[in-house]
Design brief:
Number of strands: 11
Mean pLDDT: 94
Number of domains: 2
Low-confidence stretches: none
Order of helices and strands: EHEHEHEHHEEEHEHEHHHEHEHHH
Strand order of the largest sheet: 1-2-3-4-7-8-9-11
CATH superfamily of the largest domain: Luciferase-like domain
Shape: elongated
Number of helices: 14
Length: 394
C-alpha cells in the first residue's frame, strides 16, 4: 500500500441557512490546508438545484484552488456529461489543463440530482447512456482526433480541439460508479479510471471486487487495460484525539447531512428506526469511520480487502459534519497518522529506533566507559598540576 494516495471528494453539502459566499471561500481554505498537509487530490462536484451543493461549475473551483496551492491535483467530481455539449466541455477542460499546468483531472458521470435533469428536460432513464455517448467523443477529442457524430441530443461535425494536453501529457479521466455494473462497464469499454462512490457502504463493499473484475473483462474486450492506481475509493471519515471527541464533533452538522439525503438526494442514509442516533447507525453499519486514526486505518484496510487486489487512492467525502476547526483538525490527523501507515513514511525511522533500543546495553556501556575515561583523564591532569609537572601524554 506504500503508493496509496489520499484526497477528498467535495459534493459540496452546505446547509441552506449558511452564507453561500463564505461556504465557497471555506472550501477553498480547506484545499489550501490539504495542500500544506500533503494530500494528493481534491474533486469538486457539479449541481444546479436544491440549494445545498453549490458548485455549478467545478472548473471555477479548480482554477481558484490552483492559484492558492502548489502540488495537490484537482478534478471535476464529476462533470455531468448529459448537461453539456461534448465539444464545449472538452475545449473548456483543455484550457483548464493548461492553466493548471496539468494538475486538472476530468471526472465524469451522468448527473446525480433528478431535479437538475428535470430543469433541462432530460429523461433520467437516458442519462447513463447519454454520458457514455458523450464521453466516447470527449476522449477522442482529448486524443486530438477529428470527430463527426450525430446523436439525438448533440451533433459534432469535423469537431476538433485547438490545444493538445499540457506538455502533451495524459489527462486523468475517471468514470463515477455507485453499486451497479454500469460504471465499471463504461470505464472498461472506454479505458478510464474508476471513481467508486460511497465505497464504504455495505452493498458497495460487497460488489467492489466483482465490479473491478467486470471492468477488467470489458476492458479486455475493447483492447483496454484497467489500472488499479487509477481506482479511487470514497469513504466517510471524521478523526479526533478520541472516539468520544469525534462523536461529539460530528453532532454539529450530521443532522443536516442526513436530512439532505432524505429530502434531496433521494438516497436515505439512515433508516427511520435509527434516526434518533444517526451517528451510531453510520458507525454500526460500517459506513463511516468516526473516531481515531486507528478507526480510519481499519476502514481503509477493509476497503483494500474488499477490492481483491487494492486501489490507488482513498478519498474522504467532505461532509461538513464538524465545525471548521474540528474539520481541519480531522484532515491534519489523517495526514499525520493515517498517511504514514499506508505509505511507509516511517519504515526507516522505526528501523533506526528499534535498532537503537535493541542496542541500548552496548550503547550505555560505551557511554559510561567513555565518561569514566574522561573523568580519569581529568583527575590525572589535576594531580599533575598540583605536583608542578605536566601530565603524561595520553
Amino acid at each position: 500500500m506504500e503508493k496509496l494516495r489520499f484526497g477528498t471528494f467535495i459534493p459540496p453539502i452546505h446547509p441552506v441557512r449558511e452564507n453561500p459566499t463564505l461556504c465557497l471561500e471555506r472550501d477553498l481554505d480547506l484545499i489550501e490546508h490539504m495542500d500544506k498537509m500533503g494530500f494528493h487530490e481534491a474533486w469538486f462536484g457539479e449541481h444546479h438545484s436544491a440549494g445545498t451543493e453549490l458548485y455549478s461549475t467545478p472548473e471555477f473551483m479548480i482554477l481558484a484552488a490552483h492559484y492558492r496551492t502548489k502540488t495537490i491535483r484537482l478534478g471535476t467530481g464529476v462533470s455531468s456529461l448529459p448537461y453539456h455539449h461534448p465539444l464545449i466541455l472538452a475545449d473548456r477542460f483543455m484550457q483548464l489543463h493548461h492553466m493548471t499546468k496539468g494538475r486538472a483531472m476530468f471526472g465524469c458521470g451522468p448527473g446525480a440530482l433528478v431535479s437538475d435533469a428535470k430543469m433541462m428536460g432530460i429523461e433520467t432513464a437516458k442519462q447513463r447512456d447519454m454520458m457514455e455517448e458523450a464521453l466516447a467523443d470527449i476522449l477522442k477529442l482529448f486524443r486530438g482526433e477529428t470527430v463527426t457524430h450525430e446523436t439525438d441530443w448533440y451533433t459534432l461535425k469535423d469537431a476538433r480541439l485547438q490545444l493538445r494536453p499540457y506538455n502533451n501529457g495524459p489527462i486523468d479521466v475517471v468514470t463515477a460508479s455507485m453499486m451497479s455494473p454500469s460504471g465499471p462497464r463504461a470505464a472498461g469499454r472506454l479505458g478510464t479510471g474508476l471513481l467508486s462512490m460511497s465505497a464504504s457502504a455495505a452493498p458497495a463493499l460487497k460488489v467492489a471486487g466483482t465490479n473491478w473484475d467486470l471492468a477488467c473483462d470489458v476492458a479486455a474486450e475493447h483492447g483496454n487495460t484497467m489500472d488499479r492506481s487509477q481506482w479511487r475509493m470514497i469513504g466517510l471519515v471524521h478523526i479526533a484525539e478520541t472516539k468520544e471527541q469525534a462523536i461529539k464533533d460530528v453532532q454539529f452538522g450530521v443532522e443536516d447531512w442526513v436530512q439532505y439525503f432524505e429530502d434531496v438526494a433521494v438516497l436515505p442514509m439512515v433508516p427511520p428506526e435509527r434516526r434518533g442516533d444517526p451517528v451510531a447507525h453510520l458507525m454500526d453499519a460500517g459506513m463511516a469511520a468516526i473516531g481515531t486514526p486507528d478507526d480510519v486505518i481499519r476502514q481503509i484496510e477493509s476497503l483494500w480487502e474488499a477490492s481483491s487486489g487494492g486501489f490507488g487512492c482513498f478519498l474522504t467525502t467532505d461532509h461538513s459534519w464538524a465545525d471548521t476547526p474540528a474539520k481541519l483538525k480531522s484532515y491534519e490527523m489523517m495526514a499525520r497518522y493515517v498517511f504514514p501507515h499506508f505509505q511507509g513514511h516511517n519504515v526507516k525511522r522505526e528501523e533506526s529506533n528499534n535498532w537503537v533500543k535493541a542496542s541500548q546495553k552496548d550503547f550505555k556501556a560505551s557511554h559510561f566507559k567513555a565518561t569514566d575515561q574522561q573523568i580519569e583523564k581529568h583527575n590525572k591532569e589535576m594531580e599533575a598540576k598540583e605536583a608542578g609537572k605536566p601530565a603524561a601524554a595520553e
